[in-house]
Amino acid sequence: MEIDEDGEEIGTKLHQLYFFFKCAIIISLRIMVTILPIIQITLSVILVAGILLQNRSAGIGALGGSDTVEAGFSTRRGPEKTLFLATIAVAVLFMIVSFISFIVR
User: In the chain, what percentage of residues exceed pLDDT 90?
Assistant: First the structure.
């Protein structure tokens, strides 16, 4: 066995370091299992709110084939575009958190 300048065996130090990292990973996984569902619920509420806040000019009449179908396709500008992009970002975050939650469990 090799001995370092402190007089301890290098294998013992590696074993202690391995044990420390193993405990840190276990603790962080337990915290993630506790926090991830809370994050998922929060993101899902924000996602539903973002979807419901987006208004489209084509109402129920467009479902029946009325003349207002083309009015639903307009360029998003200003706050409407910001809300649209934020909803996409929240949806992507929700998918990432769900995937991480699936892997951790």
Answer: 32
